[in-house]
Amino acid sequence: MISVLIVEDQAILRESLARSIADQPDMTVAAAIADASCALDVVREQRPDMILMDVCTEHDSSGIVAAGHIKEEVPECRIVIMTGMPEITFVDQAREAGVDSFVYKNVGLEELLAVMRSTLAGYCTFPKPPQSIFSGTAALDEVEVSILRLACEGKSRREIAAELFMSEGTVKRRISEILNKTGYDNIMRLAVHAVTEGSIVPNMER
Known about the structure:
Shape: elongated
Strand content: 5-15%
Low-confidence stretches: none
Structural class: alpha/beta
């Protein structure tokens, strides 16, 4: 029997997933919680075989950050990350954290269950990044994403420079490069678009 911990902050979805998983002949629900920061404690107590965990959870806790901590302590626990947000860095962050598989919430239940079973069998599933304003030639490098994320959080150029240990001149130049790539003439307009389409999720624990 596959023991599953569910971490999802939306109560309706959490309860629906719990019912659907409990209905499977080979699965049981160890616990269903809303806050990823509590997941490691539950893993220590319940020792589930697998965790199905949202990225953005209660109290702005990141499922990806929690997954990294869990993998350090309990590497044999399989983790499937799920999200409804097309954030451009989530998939790479999940890989770096040691997550086993990643799915978007637009998949059907049967596909989700198939990913969970194949993940437990040792296979990894990661989707292609979704199309966004940052696709193709507009793709941003790691520094550019960091600058844009801070802009999305309302930071000034001076604050961005201080946080990233850069000069204001370097930040100004990198912002110009971001705007040239994306075709925007103003970093705040780009920031609004990025947040609106879900390509950047500001103020997330990282």
